[in-house]
Design a protein that fits this description.
homodimer; Nonspecific Lipid-transfer Protein, Chain A; two-stranded antiparallel sheet; DNA-binding
Chain lengths: ~220, ~220
Amino acid sequence: MQLKKVTKLRQGKEKPWYDDACGLAHALDLVGERWALLVLRELMFGPRRFSEMKADLPGISANVLAQRLAELEARGLVRKTRLPPPASVQVYEATQWGLEAAPVIGSLGKWAARSPQHDPTLPISHVSVMMSLQTMVDPALAQGINARLGFRFGEASYAAILHGGRLDVERGEVGSCDVLFTAKPAELAAVIYGGAPLETIDVKGDMELAKRFTTLFPLPPKAE
Amino acid sequence: MQLKKVTKLRQGKEKPWYDDACGLAHALDLVGERWALLVLRELMFGPRRFSEMKADLPGISANVLAQRLAELEARGLVRKTRLPPPASVQVYEATQWGLEAAPVIGSLGKWAARSPQHDPTLPISHVSVMMSLQTMVDPALAQGINARLGFRFGEASYAAILHGGRLDVERGEVGSCDVLFTAKPAELAAVIYGGAPLETIDVKGDMELAKRFTTLFPLPPKAE
DNA sequence: CCGTATCCAATAAGATACTG
DNA sequence: CAGTATCTTATTGGATACGG
């Protein structure tokens, strides 16, 4: 074979899949491919390395992950950078515009949670749990509570601030907080959404607050 | 061939494509296939017939449209019904839950409108234009205006009420209104979003109001 | 560790023709 | 009109092996 098969990448003047000027069609051209939105989600709390993402997206192949990242980069949703020394490691991060997809992703997830066929026993990544907490917190129930929460999932950890009915999440060191949860993502989800007893996970700090925290995330009623 | 090839349809115990309990992954299992969300969009203002939809989704094949409708139906997002006599014609309509995807679709579209690569010259369906108007109206700019707008796109027509900064859209007879727009969807879009002169389309009624109406839909700033 | 190259199998989609 | 049947082609994705 002497013809170098040009990598597909649909870059530059990509022709849209959908001949439709509407924003939705364009959105699908941007992130409508298999895995694309899940890849973007993994970047929502900050830069990640290739293999971290691969590990957290069960079933994705290196091939596909690489291609999706390249496409998202070509479209201006993701940037490839190098962490500042001494880390000096190569990572992917979402651009500003990419980050703005967060509420959209959140509302998609919230909408889908009404599905009768939703199976909550599947594995789940730590980014997913944290995004879901941020999305699903009920402002009315959370009103008036001020607290700092910490979350540890093996390697990854998050700090969250509950304030004014909202939950602001950041990845990074837990720091000082009122409650610290340590668990696997799926275990935490089981406690928050599945009604599993709080004792099934490791909780440190204000147990009263922890208990109350778990009640702030009501599931929407199932459709059908 | 004696083995009836069972149609694919992934029904009943469909195994999810993504092994991920997060809502987003499930959303993608529900409507992540090519064309699915566009098909659902076409149902957002009421029941449609198969060939109408095929005509308004440029490039879709009967094959794919039929399959997507069947899948959406199996998942509880779409219902196949018959219009009451004397029409007695077979149509598809979104279920309640399906309709609730409207804001999600809207925000996806709004987010994508920031894309530098968005090409607004492509064809556009009447449902798309009306959804985009509903989504993109700026509540601050529209505050204080009360008006009834009519829209005619060949066969289809819509009535919209601008009130309290919101635009409520319904498909159906135009009825009495303050302004009546008659145009092709893309022409209307060109006037509202592309700054084309109002004279390029047919407008009847309060021209002052019509002029003002066209200024209520600012495009978000482009990313990058 | 971070990907790329290659190959192969599965599938999805377009075209077209056809039926109740 | 509302699809289904059939065929062919184009994509896609998974697996594996390999290079910087």
